[in-house]
Design brief:
Elements: H1 17-35, H2 38-41, H3 46-56, H4 58-67, H5 76-99, H6 105-112, H7 115-126, H8 133-148, E1 151-152, E2 156-157, H9 165-186, H10 192-205, H11 207-213, H12 224-250, H13 253-276, H14 282-301
Antiparallel strand pairs: 1-2
Helix pairs in contact: 1-12, 1-13, 3-5, 3-11, 3-12, 4-10, 5-9, 5-10, 6-9, 6-13, 6-14, 7-9, 7-13, 8-14, 10-12, 12-13, 13-14
């Protein structure tokens, strides 16, 4: 990785480095999203999958911190931002591991891809930022798309028609949308290495919670296709998260967040549809397409 910039240095686009890191996020998270539910299907609980994910964050965090000369931002503001970013990210991950075990990834991830909607609305409300007409159209399409994932022709619109995965996907969308907002706030005052280090720490902080939530009375797969397969899948997530932090460092957050949130779920949806060999209902297809278009418009408007 590159040497850290001095604290307070504005994060402007540095050549195309931000785009390289952002595309790496799209590829890594896209593949990870398609296969992250396999662990639970193989008999390795989602709570323990979270524990494995948290552990996979350690080596990348220590590696980049070592390359940065072990310089860690320790002022109260950096610690607060680091904890908020980390807890929102880790909390969303914990919910996601359960969500993909209860619903289809090809629908869950397009819903999550709309998290820039939360980021943009918060930026408009608290930072007085304004989006373009394309961004406004993206917001409108996102608001139209979301209910379609939870619509049933015989029951109409109901918060739980889509199953428990739908409200869980909304929670994850909110967590990661707020997380991106705080990444944006911290981007000019913290090093990328410090942000990722605090993300790793907060992820580990929730490991005891996930461990206590595990039902050890049920059989658990401790074989190669249990924790070891989970680790192979979750390391894609960990490296992707690191690339995301560096994408924020070298590029504008308002561009990076929508781009990665639009691209990765699209890769996940395509892979999941091919692997699952299923075709969702017509309205869900419309919702999926609108979600992808909305995410793309939010990215173009940034």
């Amino acid at each position: 990785m590159n040497e850290p910039m001095p604290e307070g240095t504005p994060v402007a686009a540095t050549g195309k480095r931000w785009l390289i890191f952002a595309l790496a996020v799209v590829a890594l998270w896209g593949v990870w999203g398609a296969f992250t539910g396999i662990s639970a299907q193989k008999g390795f609980p989602e709570t323990l999958t979270y524990c494995v994910w948290a552990v996979t964050m350690i080596l990348p965090a220590l590696y980049v911190l070592a390359r940065a000369g072990w310089k860690l931002d320790r002022d109260p503001k950096s610690i607060l931002y680091g904890l908020i970013i980390g807890l929102l990210g880790a909390g969303g991950q914990m919910v996601l591991f359960y969500a993909v075990n209860t619903g289809p990834a090809y629908l869950i991830f397009p819903v999550i891809s709309l998290s820039p909607l939360v980021t943009i609305l918060m930026s408009a409300a608290f930072l007085k930022e304004r989006t373009t007409k394309l961004g406004l159209l993206g917001v409108v399409l996102a608001l139209i798309a979301l209910p379609m994932f939870d619509f049933s022709p015989d029951k109409g619109f109901s918060f739980m028609n889509g199953g428990v995965w739908f409200p869980l996907a909304l929670i994850i969308m909110a967590c990661w949308g707020v997380q991106a907002y705080f990444m944006k706030l911290s981007n000019n005052s913290m090093s990328a290495e410090s942000i990722f280090f605090y993300m790793m720490i907060t992820g580990l902080m929730l490991v005891p919670v996930a461990w206590l939530m595990t039902d050890f009375s049920k059989p658990i797969n401790w074989g190669l296709d249990g924790p070891w397969l989970a680790a192979a899948i979750q390391v894609l997530n960990a490296i992707g998260a690191l690339c995301l932090v560096y994408a924020f460092r070298h590029g504008k957050a308002i561009v990076v967040a929508p781009l990665t949130n639009a691209g990765a779920p699209l890769v996940t949806a395509v892979i999941s549809l091919v692997v699952a060999n299923v075709i969702p209902g017509e309205l869900k297809i419309v919702g999926l397409v609108l979600a992808v278009i909305a995410s793309a418009l939010l990215a173009l408007a940034a």
